[in-house]
């Protein structure tokens, strides 16, 4: 590997502000903020959505049924046959 061209990889605390959840992940993200977390000081980044709060991962995602879309289409355009 070439020296001096790679960003610093370190542990970073991410804060999911939508559910007030903190987690530590290895990252190269650059930030000037730090936070004390579990007795250690880490770089700190706020995010709005993570796998803890995203509807797809929590199982709360609404799924549109394909059959409903087809029925709606036929209702609107069925008379043009």
From TrEMBL:
Species per Swiss-Prot/TrEMBL record:
Vibrio tritonius
Q: Which family does it belong to?
A: Belongs to the bacterial ribosomal protein bL31 family. Type B subfamily.
Question: Taxonomically, which superkingdom?
Answer: Bacteria
TM helices/strands, residue ranges: none
Q: Tell me which NCBIfam families the record gives.
A: L31, PRK01678.1
Tell me a GO cellular component: ribosome
HAMAP family for this protein: Ribosomal_bL31_2
Name-wise, this protein is Large ribosomal subunit protein bL31B
Matches recorded under Pfam families = Ribosomal_L31
Record's keyword terms, sorted? Ribonucleoprotein, Ribosomal protein
Q: Mind giving the lineage of the organism this protein is from?
A: Bacteria, Pseudomonadati, Pseudomonadota, Gammaproteobacteria, Vibrionales
Q: Which gene encodes it?
A: rpmE2
Binding partners and assembly: Part of the 50S ribosomal subunit.
Q: List the InterPro entries.
A: Ribosomal_bL28/bL31-like_sf, Ribosomal_bL31, Ribosomal_bL31_B, Ribosomal_bL31_sf
């Amino acid at each position: 590997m070439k020296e001096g061209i790679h960003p610093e990889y370190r542990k970073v605390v991410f804060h999911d502000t939508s559910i007030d959840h903190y987690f530590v992940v290895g990252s190269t993200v650059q930030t000037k903020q730090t936070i004390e977390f579990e007795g250690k000081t880490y770089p700190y980044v706020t995010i709005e959505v993570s796998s803890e709060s995203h509807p797809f991962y929590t199982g709360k995602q609404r799924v549109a049924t394909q059959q409903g879309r087809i029925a709606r289409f036929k209702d609107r355009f069925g008379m043009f046959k």
